User: Fold this.
Amino acid sequence: MRSICIVLMVLALSACSQWGVKPWERSVLSKPEMALDSSPLTSALDDHIYFSKEASSGGRAFGGGGCGCN
Amino acid sequence: MKKHQKITLALATATCSLMGGLPKAQAEISPDYGDWDVSAALLFYSEADRVTAVEPVISAKKQIDTDEIISLKLVLDALTGASASGAVPTNIAQTFTRPSGNGSYTTAANETPLDDTFIDTRVAISASWEIPLSRMDKIVLGGNISNEFDYTSIGVSSLFSRDINQRNTTLSAGLSFASDSISPKGGTPNPFSDMLPAKDAGYSATRLASSESKTTVDVLFGITQVIDKNSLLQFNYSFSQADGYLTDPYKVISVVDATTGIPIDYVTGVAIVPGTTLSQVVYENRPDSRTKHSLFTQYKRNFSGDVFDISYRYMFDDWDINSHTVDFRYRLKTSETTFWQPHIRFYQQSEAEFYTPFYLSGSQPTAGSKTEFSTADYRLGEMTTMTLGVEYGHVYKNHGWSLAAEYYLQTSAEPDNKVGELNNQELSPDVDAFMLRFNYDF
Assistant:
C-alpha cells in the first residue's frame, strides 16, 4: 500500500510540469469555495472531533497535540 | 468611503513617486487594508448515552500590509456525559472506583461501563502571522495555547511556501512543536496496578506523580498544483513524533475469570457479587513514543459552479496502526446565493499491536511494569466509521451563513478470544453521534 501511494505521488509530481493555467484563466480558481480549505472553522471542528474519536490525526495540516480527549 | 481612501492614497503615492519620492510625513501614512474579517461557528455534538459537547469558535483575520495577514482564533469546548472506561460489560451489575479514587459508580448488567463523571471545559487560543518573504515566498508563523482542568497544551508552528511554475505549483514545508502536560485526577496511575479506592491501604502505591508531559514534533511537506482553469490537486506528506506520557490515565482493562469470563473481585479473586464488591480493573500503559506518517491528497474541481471535493489520507505508525480516510463533499450551487453540500466520510483503522480488551485472571502484567504495553481503549482497536451529512448555505457579497447536520457511526470489531460470559456481551458496541453546526461569516 505504501509503495503504491509513493508511486502515485511520483507520477503525479511528474505530471505537474504539464499542468497549469495563465494568470487570466484563474477566475474560477480564485473563488472562495475553490480554496483547498474553503471553510477553515469547519475543518478545525471536524479535525478536533475525529482526533478525539479515532487513532489518526493530521494529514491536511499539522496533527499536533492539544487536548486530553477522553 | 474606504475604497475612496485607498484610491486617493494610491494616486498620491504614484504622483509623489513620479515627482521624485515621498515626502517623509506622507511616507509614514500606512494604507488602510480594511476591517477585521470575522467568522464564527457553533458546533453541537451528541453521542447517544455518552458525550455531549458544545463548541463555539470565533476567528478574526486582518490584512496589515501587502500580503501580510494576522489571524486570531478562540475556541471553547464544553463537554458533559460519560466515556467508556475500557472495562468489559457482564451479565451482572458492576461497581467501579471513580478516577479520583473517591466514590464509586455502578454499571447495570449487560451495559458497557461508562465513567459518568466526565465533564470538562477547554479553552484554546491561537494566532498566526502570514508574512511575505518575496514575490513568490511566504511564511506563516503560528502559536496556540489550550487549557482544560487536567490538560494544558502550548504549540508553535511555521509553514514556508514558494510559488513556482507561473504560480501554478506551490511547494510548502512546515515544522510544528507542541508541549502538553496532563495532571489527572488523583495523579498518574502506576501501570497495571489495580484501580483502588483512595481509602484502601494500597492506594498510594497505585499513583505515581501529580502530572506528566509529552512533546509532539510535526514535519509537513506539501505540493499544490493547478491542473487547469477548473481544478487543482494537493499532496502532503507529514511526519509526527510524539514522546513522553502517551497513556490515557483514565482508561483501565478488566480482569476476568479465565473460564467463566466474569469480572473478578479485586480482593477475593473470585467472581464479583453485585453491589458489594468492586470489579478488578488494572490501569493501562502505552509506549512513551509514537511515530506517525501520513500521506494526504485532495482533488477539487469546479463543474459550472458546483464544486467536487475529495480527499484521501493514509496513515501508518509504529504502534502498528494504519488507517484509510476518504472524505467527499459536493457543493451544489442552487442559485447565485445558495448552495447545498452533501458530505460523506469513510474511515477505517487497524488495531494497535498492544490492544488488549481484557485480561484472563493471572495473565495481567505485574503492577508497575514499564516494559509491557496494553490498552482496552476502543479508539486504538480495529474500527470503521462513517459520517453522512448535508449543509445548506447562503452566501452574500460580504457575509454568509450555513447550517450543517451530520450523523457519525463508529463500528468496532469484536475480539476473537472471548471466553465464557464475554461471548454473550458486545465489548465494543457501535457508537453513534449527531452533529449540528452553524457557521456565520460577518
Observations:
- Chain A has a mean pLDDT of 80.
- The two ends of chain A are 31 Å apart (CA to CA).
- The CA atoms of residues 29 and 35 of chain A lie 8 Å apart.
